[in-house]
């Protein structure tokens, strides 16, 4: 269950590896920084801080920061979009932003809950198969009939599910408990008084709350809103996310790349990920190489967006055209984060309205991992969701796993249920497959903590299933 409720904003520390089942002790390996065949540990590099200096955007290097600290900064800066009114069908998947009070009774009249015979309980209480009770049938009531009717002692009215109950009746005898006679009916068993009928206001009475603030609007809520006469409802809107990519080597998907060029996949992947998280994402594509046009594009996206997401290889310890343009629009910082892949992350609030801008690495695997860790929780916070992070489970490692010391490692893997219970996980591929192909086959991220360099086969690891819409 998603547990989506309105929390009223971010409140302090957020853990990116929350576990929804008992946590077993972690399996610690040797704490060494290097080993044969392992990925090299990313070395700390000078980071860009363009905020204070008008002439030179470089500052002394920041200390590498933890995943939690970088995430805290992002979540604390997320705006809360103003509620908007939408048609009830357009509100599906969003959180209600008002207390909807019913002005109607549901049901609006006493009605039969199933096909049968409306009768007086006193008349049928003694009915048995051996000694059925005979009642005279005075007519029939079907759904949609508006003429009220009534019955007296010894009489019954044939009714359809949803039909108006006759005055005087206090029970509906199911048709299968009778001989279904059209003129006289033999009742062979009696339900308790009040059975198989719905009284006026049993579901919702006038003045009762129908849908509360923070309620996720799904098919059942839409049904109730329609029943109480609401065509439109106030909701927390989908945040508007602009997705851009930076890099002189990038070409659009319809272009055949020349040697040294790369097809822009990040703007497609990140826009899709943002939509899956619940945002209204706009794929703006590759940033222009011309400085004036670049600044114009950034400014226009800041005016139309609640959050701007940029993927690219950004300057570290120096400046380039994109970081310079971002620095001119506000305080933008690029930092080393103790995670792998994608240790260089950027965040700032730019433009007149201080719109949050998140920069993630340009390498596609690192870009999507960064999205899961930082951007998806931010989107869900703006949506008002209570559960910001994907639920995690503990799984048995199917093979030995290695991780760089001091960095939280995120590995794509496949997780499956073990026949004896619990979960088993293995990393995807053997290292010879293309990274995008491996990522496309994965259904989870394996999360290895900063102080663990080795997990033996059979050890327990934290796994984050990557379920669409989950």
Overall description:
The structure is a single chain. By secondary structure, the chain is α/β, with parallel strands linked by helices. Among the domains are: about 65-80 and about 240-385, 3-Layer(aba) Sandwich (Molybdenum Cofactor Biosythetic Enzyme, Chain A); about 85-105 and about 205-235, Molybdopterin biosynthesis moea protein, domain 2, CATH 3.90.105; about 110-200, Molybdopterin biosynthesis moea protein, domain 3 (Molybdopterin biosynthesis moeA protein, domain 3, Beta Complex), CATH 2.170.190.11. The protein is about 20% helix and about 25% strand. It is built from eight helices and 27 strands. The protein has a six-stranded mixed sheet, with helices on both faces. Strands 7-4-6-5-8 form a five-stranded mixed sheet. A five-stranded mixed β-barrel has the order 21-24-23-25-27. Strand 23 (about 410-415) and strand 24 (about 425) form a beta hairpin. Helix 4 (about 265-275) packs parallel to helix 7. The radius of gyration is 31 Å and the shape is elongated.
Question: Please, what is the CATH homologous superfamily of the domain at 67-82 and 238-383?
Answer: MoaB/Mog-like domain
Radius of gyration, in Å, reads 31 Å
Distance between the termini: 9 Å
Task: Classify the secondary structure makeup into a structural class.
Answer: alpha/beta
Total E-strand runs: 27
Mean pLDDT: 85
Order of strands in the sheet with the most strands?
15-12-16-20-19-17
Percent of residues in helices comes to: 10-25%
The best one-word shape is elongated
CATH architecture of the domain at 67-82 and 238-383: 3-Layer(aba) Sandwich
CATH C-level class of the domain at 67-82 and 238-383 is Alpha Beta
Question: Remind me, CATH topology of the domain at 67-82 and 238-383?
Answer: Molybdenum Cofactor Biosythetic Enzyme, Chain A
Largest sheet: 6 strands, mixed
Tally of helical segments: 8
Low-confidence stretches are 1-15, 18-61
Enzyme class: transferase
Keywords: Magnesium, Metal-binding, Molybdenum, Molybdenum cofactor biosynthesis, Transferase
Domain MoaB/Mog: 242-381
Family: Belongs to the MoeA family.
């Amino acid at each position: 269950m998603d547990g989506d409720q309105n929390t009223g904003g971010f409140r302090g520390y957020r853990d990116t590896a929350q576990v929804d089942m008992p946590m077993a002790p972690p399996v610690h390996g040797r704490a060494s920084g290097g080993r044969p065949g392992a990925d090299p540990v990313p070395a700390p590099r000078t980071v860009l801080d363009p905020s204070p200096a008008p002439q030179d955007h470089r500052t002394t290097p920041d200390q590498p920061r933890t995943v939690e600290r970088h995430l805290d900064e992002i979540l604390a800066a997320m705006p809360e979009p103003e509620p908007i009114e939408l048609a009830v069908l357009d509100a599906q998947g969003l959180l209600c932003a008002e207390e909807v009070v019913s002005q109607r009774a549901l049901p609006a009249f006493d009605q039969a809950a199933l096909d049968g015979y409306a009768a007086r309980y006193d008349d049928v209480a003694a009915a048995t198969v051996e000694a059925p009770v005979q009642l005279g049938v005075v007519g029939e009531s079907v759904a949609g009939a508006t003429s009220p009717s009534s019955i007296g002692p010894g009489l019954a009215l044939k009714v359809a599910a949803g039909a108006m109950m006759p005055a005087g009746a206090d029970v509906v005898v199911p048709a299968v408990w009778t001989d279904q006679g059209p003129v006289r009916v033999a009742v062979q068993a009696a339900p308790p008084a009040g059975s198989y009928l719905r009284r006026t206001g049993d579901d919702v009475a006038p003045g009762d709350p129908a849908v509360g603030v923070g309620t996720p609007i799904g098919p059942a809520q839409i049904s109730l809103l329609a029943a109480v006469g609401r065509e439109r409802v106030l909701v927390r809107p989908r945040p508007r996310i602009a997705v851009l990519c930076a890099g002189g080597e990038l070409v659009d998907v319809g272009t055949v790349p020349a040697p040294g060029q790369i097809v822009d996949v990040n703007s497609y992947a990140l826009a899709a990920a943002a939509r899956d998280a619940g945002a209204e994402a706009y794929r703006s594509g590759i940033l222009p190489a011309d400085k004036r046009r670049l600044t114009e594009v950034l400014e226009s996206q800041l005016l139309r967006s609640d959050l701007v997401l940029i993927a690219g290889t950004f300057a570290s310890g120096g400046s380039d055209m994109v970081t310079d343009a971002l620095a001119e629009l506000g305080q933008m910082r690029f930092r080393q984060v103790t995670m792998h892949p994608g240790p260089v992350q950027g965040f700032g609030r730019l433009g007149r309205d201080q719109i949050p801008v998140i920069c993630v690495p340009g390498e596609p695997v690192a870009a999507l991992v960064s999205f899961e860790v930082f951007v998806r929780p931010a989107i869900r916070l703006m949506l008002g969701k209570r559960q910001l992070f994907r639920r995690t489970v503990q799984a048995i490692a199917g093979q030995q796993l290695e991780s760089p010391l001091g960095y939280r490692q995120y590995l794509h893997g496949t997780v499956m249920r073990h026949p004896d219970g619990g979960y088993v996980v293995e990393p995807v591929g053997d290292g010879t497959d293309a990274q995008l192909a491996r990522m496309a086959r994965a259904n989870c991220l394996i999360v290895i903590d900063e102080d663990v360099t080795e997990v033996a086969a059979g050890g327990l690891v934290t796994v984050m299933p990557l379920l669409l819409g989950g």
